[in-house]
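Appendix B. Worked example

We walk through a single record from start to finish. Start with the input: the chain for Mitochondrial outer membrane protein porin 3, Panicum virgatum, length 275.
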Amino acid sequence: MAPGLYADIGKKTRDLLYKDYNTHQKFSVTTCSPHGVAITAAGTRKNESIFGELHTQIKNKKLTVDVKANSESDLLTTITVDEFGTPGLKSILSLVVPDQRSGKLELQYLHAFAGVNASIGLNPNPMVNFSGVFGSKALSVGVDVSFDTATSNFTKYNAALSLTNPDLIASLHLNNHGDTLVASYYHLVKHHSGTAVGAELSHSFSRNESTLIFGSQHSLDPYTILKARFNNYGMASALVQHEWRPKSFVTISGEVDTKAIEKSTKVGLSLVLKH
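Next comes the structure step. The output line below is what the pipeline stores for this chain.
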């Protein structure tokens, strides 16, 4: 089976520990048509500021066009073509208006024993990125490299290792030019209830600092999920997410510093409506 792309290494653990945790107020509404058109209006309130986004997606066979406009007057257009000339190959063209130097062409290729992603900026001195994963679904290794042609320097070079079986996923990342080592672990304890535990240990060699975070999740029923996490700095978070209709979710999450209980607890609310 295919090992996937570099971004997939450790994704199960990251989703368990970070996905859907939120201390702001978020709201989004998506309307889909039977002709492959989806329109999403979203808003986020952070402190006293409100940020909005309008997202339109059009799908026609192997072609997908995404257009996003936000409250900062940016317009992001992404054109994706699946099975571009050969099975397993995908091409992605993206551009942010009014930034004329933001254009980027990206190619993704998935093979039974490899997953490759390459991109290049569409400007005179582009940033070039390459990432590749080689192996199988059970054991794979990957690299992620970025080269700035304007300065002739490697701005990023990372490496990763992944070990996967039906109940356990372990990964190891070496990031930030070899300065940061990240080890992650995910274990599915009970299939029928979706009960899982995970942990991530990150160590910076230059600062000689380590961060350890534990997390777990459990399904109360087919529509309700509970999640909790705790790190070595005393920050504790929890959330409950309920799917009250197909693909429509309400999520309530909270965060508290256990070493400073006198501080107010941060609470976030997210509502996603799709019809």
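Two observations about the output. The chain has a mean pLDDT of 91. The first helix runs from residue 11 to 18.
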